[in-house]
Amino acid sequence: MRPVVGTGSAAGDRPRRVVIAPDSFKGSATATEVAAALGDGWRSRRPRDEIVTLPIADGGEGTLDVFAAAVPDSVRHPVRVTGPDGRPHDAEWLALPGDVAVVELARASGLPLMLAPDPLRAQTIGLGEALRAALAGGAQRILVALGGSASTDGGTGALAALGARFLDARGAVLPPGGGALTGLARVELAGLRPPPSGGVRCLVDVDAPLLGPAGAAEVFGPQKGAGPTDVDLLAAGLRRLAEVLGGEPTAPGAGAAGGTAYGLAAAWGADLVPGVQTITEAAGLPAALAGAGWVVTGEGRFDRTSLAGKVVGGVLALARAAGVPVLLAAGQVDAPRPEGAIAEVALARLAGGAQAAMAEPLRWLRAAGAELASRAG
């Protein structure tokens, strides 16, 4: 990725290089927009600093854009898919040199694509259709960015779109969605399209297993509209899926995207890897940190989950290894300042409330960049 560099008029102290490497502020601004706004704010206080903007993702929303910006000669391919609530939706997959494809679940089966949450019937059919399109386009290796899903179907929708059949005790195909999985009796994989010869890597943004108190249904179901009864039903369905399909439901990351990581691993042989590590390397963040004065990162909400497979945690780890102090911007800050960070700012505080911050995110991101520049020392 070509860095965006800013210089300006004289400033009072020695100019330094600052790397701005945020995630998207989901529902408010893309990672590219966040990085640019933070950079504008920083430049208003320290105009002589060199600013390098590197938008980052963790396997969720924005991953495809990061790869498109970071990898020369990448090509976007539009595809029409079935959205998570059954309505047609425009998505795309990305072809990288070397017959590598990037498919982003959030673009095909993401929660923002729903008119309203439907935790029991939302499904990942669109993801499978995008994967099928990438295979038809000649992909020999596929990176699947898992994050931001609308469903808790264990990836059964995606696998069904690839030719698998999930049947009840009468031999009838189950309806889509995680709510039907308690009736699963048999899985037929004879018609499943084989994975590409170079394999499949799932870029996961969490380390949750499929099942249990830290699993897909229990932890993430409520974020998709599931009430307590729904969570119990979804958890039971995923348990049944694991009993029938096998695989490794306890693997770290198996619970990503409502268990889609588990389903792709168990039925398609996919490897589960931390998304943020793969994506930061593709974006060139380790090299950019060498000799930097500071790194600015951020996300919509900084909380206890931010250090487990998310962008902020990944940037912090790389910055600590490089000895670069970290400055944090977030819409809301709901956890103590992490090790390696020297300052943090919440847009909600600057704007006088979360709703005001979300109404004008770029304005308050510029204000956050200015405040962090003033506090950098």
UniProtKB/TrEMBL annotation:
InterPro entries referenced in this protein's UniProt entry, alphabetically: Glyc_kinase_flavodox-like_fold, Glycerate_kinase, Glycerate_kinase_RE-like, Glycerate_kinase_sf
Official protein name in the record: Glycerate kinase
Pfam families linked to this entry: Gly_kinase
Kinase among keywords: yes
GO process annotations (BP): organic acid phosphorylation
MF terms (GO), sorted A to Z: glycerate kinase activity
Cleavable signal peptide: none
Keyword Kinase: yes
Species for this entry: Frankia torreyi
Recorded family membership: Belongs to the glycerate kinase type-1 family.
UniProt keyword terms in alphabetical order: Kinase, Transferase
EC number: 2.7.1.31
